[in-house]
Each structure stands twice: as structure tokens, then as C-alpha cells.
Amino acid sequence: MTPATATLVSPGRQALDSALLQLDQAADRLHLDDGLRTMLATPRRSLTVSVPVRREDGRMDVVQGFRVQHNTTRGPAKGGIRFHPSTDIHEVTALAMWMTWKCALVGIPYGGAKGGVSVDPATLTTRELERVTRRYVNEILPIIGPDKDIPAPDVGTDEQTMAWIMDTYSVNAGYPVPGVVTGKPTTLGGSLGRAGATSRGVRIATLKAMSGSPEGRTVAVQGFGKVGAPAARYLADAGCRVVGVSDATGAVVNHSGLDVDDLRAWVEETGGVYGYRHADALSHEDLLELDVDVLVPAALEGAITAENASRVRARLIVEGANGPTTPEADRILADAGITVVPDILANAGGVIVSYLEWVQNLQACSWSAKEVDTRLRDLMEESFDAVAAMSAERGLSLRQAAHVIGVGRVAEAHRMRGLYP
Ligand code: GLU
């Protein structure tokens, strides 16, 4: 592909191409027939909506919204909602597909979905954000519900967004429906332990993938946000030395180790890591190329590509984000002997605790933080062991093994259900 044509392919389309290639390779290994392959490559339901939003000055803007239910064979559709200016139907489809394999891989009874609104939340007032959220939910209302499709947070959305979703759905239903969405505030039926769940899962996956003690192992985190910042904290708690982090504002490094809490306080105060006093500045590219034991990409898709993969010096990559490594980069990293713990395993802690939250909502009960954490740990460790065993048995990378297991379970569910009519 020439650079001129490369620019025509949106990051979302690139993510979808990566997801389809991963599916195709898993389907080859599973000897799936063409019909089933097509079924798995195609979303069951895909909705694009226009979301009109009244701005504070009285103007009306219209943004695009999406909800893609990739698969519902193993259970209701499940997956987050992303608010990001560059989100498009292709990206949302790729992310929905990855949710399907992720839920199957960790053995929770869900299909996969994702939602998105092409808006930059930083440019909206809180009231505008609330109006966008409620109107978007109204547009997708017919296809969501606690037995149909259960949204959750993703990039650009949080507990407050989930509270508005729960309220909008409940007002329309005429009674409270906490199980329609996960990642809610605990006052509305959110689960203890959901907030840091993805990051705690990243820690569990990192410690499982490391041979030997975590003490003094160096870590770089790309994306010091909802997943990356708590992951840095948890890895530091485990004994690792977090030496570099980046976010949209910049990147910082301190080879003696960053004080993660102090850095988080700085980010809270100033809006980003840029300018942090107790570290040196470096470029976003250099952060990914630091000589560290572990690199945690925890931002967006396509961070590690054919262009920069050969300069990555980390020994282990643990994907906190969805789709941060392209298939070309995967090959380069594998040739260099770098282990990659893939997204659908490494960041599954979030949807695992979403599932626990939904179960508590359906049973109208609440579990202790300890109970939630034990279940999270058990599911993460069992899933990791299954992937590692498949990888050793069949000589596959951890990503290839994870896809063989995830895609294989969904394919098997299709076979058992049969085709209607
Ligand atoms: N957005 C998260 C993910 O990509 C969580 C999804 C959920 O909890 O449903 O896994």
C-alpha cells in the first residue's frame, strides 16, 4: 500500500481489517466451513443513528452514534460505549467482534457488542454531555435491555454516563432497570470493584506472564487514563518499577521509578502528565520504545504498527487497550521473541466484573469487594492458563491461542443451536 492510499483507510477500517484477519486465521486453525466463517465475520445487528444535540448557545448539532451487536449466540450482547471524535462504524464493529471472543474466552454467558458516538466529550459541557447520552440511548433503546444488550463504559464514558443510561432506560420502561447497564455508580447497583477491574485484570495477566518475581521489573504505560493509571498503581504495588507513562498531553520518564500517586495528583491538577516535575519529558514514540521489562499499551487501537514494532524493546507487552497491536506488528514482535498478552485476555477484567455486576442486579443482591475480587482473579487465572496451555500445545502465540479458544467456543455454540428455520 502506498502512503497516499494508506491515508484513505480510516483507523476504524484498519481495526476492522485486523479483527477480520485474526478471525480468518482462527477459522483456518479450527477448520470452520465458509458459511460459519461468514456468519462470524458479520455483525448480527448494526445500527447507525443521528443524535441531535442542543448546545448551550441554542444551536443544534447532529453527531453520529452506533451500536453494533456482533454476536448473541452464547448470550445477550455485551460491550462498552465509546465517546470519541474519530469513532466510526468500522471501529465499533471491530470492537464488538473482539467483545464476542473476549466473553467466550473468559467463559461468561454473553455475546459481543460495542457502541460509539463520534463526539469529543472534552468539548461539551456536562449538560450537553448528558443530553447527547440520553438522546443516543433513546435512539438505540429498542435494541438494548438487560436480556438483550448491556452497555458499559469505554473510552470517553464513565460511571456518570452509565447512571444517565440507566435512568433514561428506566424512565422509558416505567420502573428501575439496573441490569440494563454495567459500570454504574454503586448507589445505583454498581458492583464493588468494577472501577479498577480492567486494571486489576492487567496486573493479574502481567504477573502470570512474567517468569519470576515482579520485584524491580520495569514498566512503561502508554495511556495514563481509566485503565492505564490504576494499572500503573497496581503494578507498582506488586513491586514493579513504573518508569514511563504517556497520555494525550505528553510522555514522561524517570528511570529510578515514578511515584504513581504523586503523578496521578499532578494529572488531576493539570489535566495531563505533561510538565510533571519529577521526570524527564520524552516523545510519544520514545515511550513505546523504552528499554523496559513490560510495556502496557492502554490507549487506543493501532499504537504498535509495522512502522515502530522493530524498535520496541520491552520483553513483554500486556494489552490494556483493545487492538493496540496491528497484525503486521504482531509478526515483527513474535520474530523478536517479545511475548504479547492479547487484549481479549489481558483487559477482560472489566467485562468480567461487569458480568458480576449484572448477576448481582438480576438477583437484587450485592457482594463484598473481596468476593468480587476472588471471582475476578479465578476467572482471569483460569483463562490465562487455558490460553498458555493451548499456545504450548499447538505452538501458537498467546493471541492466536486466545482466538482459537474464543472463536472455537462461539462456533461450537452456533453448531449446537443450529440454523433457524
Ligand atoms: N469496554 C470494556 C471492554 O472493552 C468493558 C466492556 C463491558 O464491561 O461490557 O472490555
Question: Could you characterize what this model shows?
Answer:
With 421 residues, this protein is α/β, with parallel strands linked by helices. Among the domains are: 43-176, Rossmann fold (3-Layer(aba) Sandwich), CATH 3.40.50; 197-346, NAD(P)-binding Rossmann-like Domain (Rossmann fold, 3-Layer(aba) Sandwich), CATH 3.40.50.720. It is built from 15 helices and twelve strands. Strands 9-8-7-6-10-11-12 form a seven-stranded mixed beta sheet, with helices on both faces. Helix 4 (89-105) links the parallel strand 3 (77-83) and strand 4 (112-117). Helix 7 packs across helix 14 and helix 14 (369-394) packs across helix 15 (398-417). It is globular and about 55 Å long. Residues 1-5 have low confidence and may be disordered. It binds glutamic acid (GLU). Glutamic acid binds next to strand 3 and helix 13.
